[in-house]
């Protein structure tokens, strides 16, 4: 073991010990005291990738008399900004509602600029695996198709179908190159290459012959060689897939399921495919983190507590495709509970994703260009 | 000792002092960020370390350079997007010159009717955000490939458009050219207007044919304007992100700016900034060419308003047909995209175009969770958040316009009065450099630079001042161009006469220099003003919680698919800007063309 490795191991152990003691101290914290201090602290500043945070904040402010300022930023902008501010010692933000935890963890948590905090409701009700990092909710991304054309059922049963001639030039996906979460999700396809290869065997009855290093990258290559349509937004994908009166509608890959809330409003003939081997898509967390040098830590803690309650989650609960870890939440009408999705969909391994996301992006860039 | 001091004092002319001050300031605000950006390309960043074996965060590395330029995949990673970028930039400049030049010639040198209307209308495509044309293109020409509703063209004719026509480099080039041709129109128009007709008349007297006159006299005199147009449009073609991403994706044709964006998002700023640097270097090359070819010639261009106007070419019976065709095309480029945006703001249920579906809800409706999109947001005009953001945008635009305007005059003064020295050249080129920097990268760098206290500034993070600084630097090139062209037209003898009467520098400036070219200076304010109102990528990382801007706040509406609000805000901005432009033209005699240095 080299000295560097030894030190790293030692530091990790020390951090783990530290974490345990921190969580113990949180257990012993006095919530009443936090509430009392929060009221004295005043206006809270939150960066958020979702606009619904601002809605929750409005109700929260009215209820507790603590003003909350929410700045809406795209996921990478949020990470960049939170990182640069903390790195230059001007951390004015109190907490973040972030996505792309793989990147955020590297820049914000591993650097110590942001810390995890588990408020009482979450501590009591959320399953442990959703507590570190504290998850506000999970979002799922699915495969979808036009129900007018395919009224009798699923047009494809395996992800490998999307690499066949029948789907040439018909599959739409948000540009992986500009979507961090897609990159994370596809690292899981690399990590679970064997399962993906098995799915190929199941579909075509013969083993997968590869020119790439593994089945995950092989999929990316074949998928791109099958002339997919690269879009800039999930809203446009769901609309294109679901619009009425199409003879040859496209298929959607990896668009957020919550877009289905507009089905009635926009007259979308769209549904998600629930029989795709080996995964129905992927899900990813929206994460809450507390700034290490938050100017208003107690107010932030209170807001985090609020977001973990059924009332606080209400702005997200008005559509399918968003799931709080709070077991008391009733699933959106017509949607399955998260426990169902969790079994049918792949998530990703944070460490593996961080290490392999560059390879996924490079493979994508290599074959994406026509 | 005394004599050295005296000599120093005498040598301490205002222009010299100004030059030194500006050189230092620009070095700090332009060169330093560039240096920071370049530095990042040699450093291992958190997520990059996994792909660089044995590295840890902050190490020095050459791997970003190797990957981009000399690795096995360099062609797909770098050179291919580079070629696409160049194709767009060249095509766009050529088209912008062709459309703008033809239009300018028709308006200035023929007896075409409706000149005033055409002149005013031809500038509006530039005032509209460039992506409105991309959206309109898709709505018009999309085919089955991207699904959804039929494109209007296909719906009307039954003919399906080919992919190359609907998406990719071709429409990217066309839509950008339609956005930037006003540059060509204004600059070439200005140059044509300034040609002394006596030159052409002499040629005619000497028996030169019309073609010969055009080739030997008109074109050489207009050449500087042609090159300026080329420079301005070409560099914009290098850096634009929105239109290429939107129109190129469906057929997977990518450019350098998409590659910059992808790598920034992928957590690989080292590779991303290399793409940014490549864009800047290309821009500098064009700038250099411009100076080599035009640099000496430009100084001979004598601008005199006193010469006789050339006789107008009679279009004869083609007068009206050509005019109507022109007006028709210009209107199409303006009305179609804006109309498409506008219609959506009046449709209660999106995409359902009928009278029953008409509504004012998204403009003046009360907040409601059940009407229309059920957004729970009040209509635009009574939405306090949107209105205050709009107010902030206007405040920023005015402040930035005023500051860049003043700086433009002073830098222009220094450049012109120091003409022939390296200082003048350096100032001229330095002040143009920000024009070549992709704004996504510039925003990130400014954030990194000013979050910490940096002498002489305290930490400017989250302040309105920082927004102002970023915009001033970014739009200074316009103001300086205007300033240079204004001062150049004032002969030094005027100032010398003032000096003889004992006028101080300050008196000379505000009694002579500024009044004479008042309208040109005000023209110089217009472009920064317009640009600020629609800036997003430069400012997104810098906006303050209390001063959200119109563009940053509409983000949250866009990603929920609440397009009536987004579209409405864009329309409001366009209307405000057009009104301001027209008003300033009436009141101050401003002219955007002059703001470009035309």
Would you kindly provide a written description of the structure presented here, covering whatever features stand out?
The complex is a heterodimer of chains A (370) and B (598). Chain A has 370 residues and is an alpha/beta fold. Chain A has two domains: 3-138 and 284-336, 3-Layer(aba) Sandwich (D-Maltodextrin-Binding Protein, domain 2); 140-283 and 354-368, D-Maltodextrin-Binding Protein, domain 2 (3-Layer(aba) Sandwich). Chain A is 45% helix and 16% strand. Chain A has helices at 3-27, 31-41, 52-64, 75-87, 101-109, 120-125, 180-191, 193-204, 215-225, 234-242, 297-308, 310-317, 338-344, 350-368; strands spanning 44-48, 68-72, 95-98, 114-115, 134-146, 171-174, 229-231, 251-256, 270-272, 281-291, 322-323. In chain A, strands 1, 2, 3, 4, 5, 6, 7, 8, 9, 10 and 11 form an eleven-stranded mixed sheet that branches. In chain A, strand 1 (44-48), helix 3 and strand 2 form a beta-alpha-beta unit. Chain A is globular, with a radius of gyration of 22 Å. With 598 residues, chain B is mainly alpha-helical. Chain B folds into three domains: 13-36 and 383-595, Orthogonal Bundle (MetI-like fold); 87-255 and 287-308 and 320-340, MetI-like fold; 347-377, no CATH class. In chain B, helix 2 (14-40) crosses helix 20. The two termini of chain B are 47 Å apart. In chain B, 48% of the residues are buried. Residues 299-306 of chain B have low confidence and may be disordered. At the A-B interface, strand 2, helix 4, helix 5, strand 7 and helix 10 of A face helix 4, helix 14, helix 20 and helix 25 of B.
